[in-house]
Specification:
The protein is mainly α. Helix content is 46%, strand content 11%. The chain contains five helices and three strands. The longest helix has 14 residues. Keywords: Phosphoprotein.
C-alpha cells in the first residue's frame, strides 16, 4: 500500500514476476474496507499517506487481533518512526529507495512465518 501509484505498480510488478499474487491500495481506509482476517498473508505499506498513516494501520490491525506480518517501506529515516513501527509489531522497516533483494528476503521470511 502506497499513495504513490508508481511505487504501487513497481511493487506489484516485482511480486508478479515472482508469481506472488498482489492487491494494491492507495490508502489505509481502502485496505481496511477490503480486509478480512486470513485474506492476505502479508502487508507492505508506506508510513506517510493521506488519511491514516501506515503506522496507524499497523496499530489498528494489532488492536483487532491480526498477527499478519506488516513490512514498512518508507522514505522516513527518523529513528523515532522506526522505533514506533517496530514496537507496534512491524515485521520489518525498510527505507526507500529499497533494494528488491532486501524486500524479497523479508517478504519470504514473513511468508514462511505464517
Amino acid at each position: 500500500m502506497d499513495d504513490d501509484e508508481a511505487v504501487r505498480e513497481a511493487l506489484s510488478d516485482l511480486l508478479l514476476v515472482l508469481e506472488l499474487s498482489c492487491h494494491t491500495f492507495d490508502r489505509a481506509e481502502a485496505f481496511m474496507t477490503d480486509y478480512v482476517p486470513g485474506r492476505y498473508d502479508c502487508l507492505i505499506t508506506d508510513v506517510s499517506m493521506p488519511g491514516h498513516s501506515g503506522l496507524d494501520l499497523l496499530q489498528r490491525l494489532r488492536d483487532i487481533g491480526s498477527s499478519m506480518p506488516v513490512i514498512i517501506v518508507t522514505a522516513d529515516t527518523r529513528p523515532a518512526t522506526r522505533s514506533r513501527a517496530m514496537r507496534g509489531g512491524a515485521y520489518a522497516y525498510l527505507t526507500k529507495p529499497i533494494e528488491s533483494e532486501a524486500l524479497l528476503r523479508h517478504l519470504q521470511s514473513a511468508l514462511r512465518r505464517e
